[in-house]
Amino acid sequence: MRYVEGDDAARPPYLVESAENALRILLWLRNSPRLRVTEVSDRLGVARSTAHRLLSTLTYLGFLRHDPIKRVYLPGEVLVEIALASTDHQELRRASMPHIERLANAQGWTVHLSVLEGTDIRFIDGCESPRPVRVSVRIGSRSPAHSTSSGKVLLAALPPHHLATLYPEDPPKVTEHTIADLGELEQQLEEVRRLGYATNLGENEVGLHAASVPIHHDGRIVAAIAAAHPTMVEAPSDFSEIVDQLRATAATIEGQLERQADDGARR
């Protein structure tokens, strides 16, 4: 029986109260991406010291992370990993991560693996650049597809009528550089199909540029791999070098996916 807040009739008779309170905190993150000690104390009906201990325990175990500046608690890496493990992307992540890490460390760019979810992309895995000034990984988060290099790669793989269904109106502006006209977006996606890669020049976040290529499996594009760099670090005059590295990495991942599929078929 699924937990519904306020439904005491469905409450099992042998709940462990401390465990119940900790799990309720995690459930609240579905609707509120950040929690404060006072809020948790009030909603649980416990002292602030008790709420603080619960939050500290969840933070220690990686389910939450604490922002000491804003004094809020946010979803932690473990929570994101559990969520991603429950999706159908485990094989893709397993095939990709060793090669993503190798690329990030060799080239000094932050590398992300993304899939399309409606008009957004979701970052399902990634590895940060080893450089002091770098783009942070955003595993589990979403961004508008039309303003990201990975999103453009994935949108370019869709049939034209599907794109019109996704965007009955012009896509929204994210920054001053974002394409916010459907006709212009369609033209750029045609260019992406021709070139086989996409770029993002401050379109999703001012001060960040990125390039992305597709990952194919079973005759279709299943994901995109992108490399991102802050523009304060030598913005390239062209993306040819990193695109070549992304293509090589994507080809390696595609080979690994094939091997994993063959291994699974033999079991």
Question: How does this structure look, described?
Answer:
There is one protein chain. This protein has 267 residues and is an alpha+beta fold. The protein has two domains: 8-81, Orthogonal Bundle (Arc Repressor Mutant, subunit A); 87-266, GAF domain (Beta-Lactamase). Helices cover 43% and strands 19% of the residues. The protein is built from nine helices and eight strands. Strands 5-4-3-8-7-6 form a six-stranded antiparallel sheet, with helices on both faces. A two-stranded antiparallel ribbon has the order 1-2. Helix 2 packs across helix 3 (48-60), helix 5 runs antiparallel to helix 9 (240-266) and helix 6 packs across helix 8. The longest helix has 27 residues, at 240-266. The protein is globular. The chain starts with 16 loop residues before the first helix and ends with a helix.
Could you name the CATH topology of the largest domain? Beta-Lactamase
CATH top level assignment of the largest domain: Alpha Beta
Low-confidence stretches: none
Strand order within the widest beta sheet: 5-4-3-8-7-6
Instruction: Provide the CATH architecture of the largest domain.
Output: 2-Layer Sandwich
The structural class is: alpha+beta
Distance between the termini: 35 Å
Please describe the biggest sheet, giving its number of strands, its sense, and whether it closes into a barrel. Answer: 6 strands, antiparallel
User: Rough shape?
Assistant: globular
- Order of H and E elements: HHHEEHHEEEHHHEEEH
How many separate structural domains?
Answer: 2
Give the amount of beta strand, in percent. 15-25%
Mean pLDDT: 88
Q: How many strands appear in the DSSP assignment?
A: 8
How many H/I helices?
Answer: 9
Say which CATH homologous superfamily of the largest domain is assigned.
Answer: GAF domain
Helix content: 40-55%
Rg of Cα set? 21 Å
Could you state the oligomeric state of the chains shown?
Answer: single chain
